[in-house]
Amino acid sequence: MGARALPAALLLGVVTGCAAEQEPKEPAAGAKSTATGKSTAGAPAGAPAGSPAGAVAKGGSIGGKGSACVLPVAFDLASGWSPEAVRIDAEFGALKHGPVTLVCEIDAKPAGNIGYLRVWTGGAGATDPRAALEAFVAEESKSKKDVAYTKTTVGGFAAAEVTYLNTDEFLDAPKKERALAFAAPRGLVVLHLGGMDSEEHEQMLPAYELAKKSVHGV
């Protein structure tokens, strides 16, 4: 009787041992991804210690005289984001979408994300942000769905904002995008936030919101 019971006991020990080896370990609190440097604890990369999810640290401003991109307005940048003026290509000229021209790219890569907050500007004569935004989006994303426009105010300027899902056939998967247009005294401005994919887009939203809420004239 005892001899026949022994293999079953051994088998139970082997099964129990395998289960213990396969059980996933919980990540330590505050752990970071070694691939991207993004926090897994809730607050986005670049946020001060103890900040709630959605908060982001300020890392300077852009738009004023002497900054990397001189714009019709100025606004705050998230910590680590790197702005660079867009030069007109000698062969192809400027990149235009509707009534606006790409003038500045603010790179999120130094802050741990893959994407840009791009700034487009147009003439001072534009007075209808919604019409300008519709023309911009028509060229920025040829194929899209779930398009939603809202009327708003930014920095005291009349503005329009749009969110949509870019469904371009060349993308690996549809991705979230959004843009904001407003007419400042010195010219029309469009801020566009894309991202490599929807996850990156969501993680970069605090930087976009920081720029949006800090817009002011120069």
Q: What is the overall silhouette?
A: globular
Reading the helices and strands in chain order gives: HEEEEEEHEEEEHE
Number of helices: 3
Cα Rg? 24 Å
Q: Share of helix among residues?
A: 10-25%
Q: Could you give a short account of the major beta sheet?
A: 8 strands, antiparallel
Poorly predicted spans: 1-53
Task: Reconstruct the topology from this structure.
Layout: H1 2-22, E1 58-62, E2 73-78, E3 82-85, E4 96-97, E5 100-107, E6 116-121, H2 129-140, E7 144-154, E8 157-166, E9 175-184, E10 187-193, H3 198-213, E11 216-217
Antiparallel strand pairs: 1-2, 2-11, 3-5, 4-5, 5-6, 6-10, 7-8, 8-9, 9-10
Question: Would you summarize the structure shown here?
Answer:
With 218 residues, this protein is of the alpha+beta class. 22% of the residues lie in helices and 33% in strands.
How would you describe what is shown here?
The protein has helices at 2-22, 129-140, 198-213; strands at residues 58-62, 73-78, 82-85, 96-97, 100-107, 116-121, 144-154, 157-166, 175-184, 187-193, 216-217. It is of the alpha+beta class and 218 residues long. The strands form 2 sheets. Strands 3, 4, 5, 6, 7, 8, 9 and 10 form an 8-stranded antiparallel β-sheet that branches. A 3-stranded antiparallel β-sheet has the order 1-2-11. Strand 9 and strand 10 (187-193) form a beta hairpin.
Give keywords.
single chain; 218 residues; alpha+beta; 8-stranded antiparallel sheet; 3-stranded antiparallel sheet; 3 helices; 11 strands; disordered N terminus
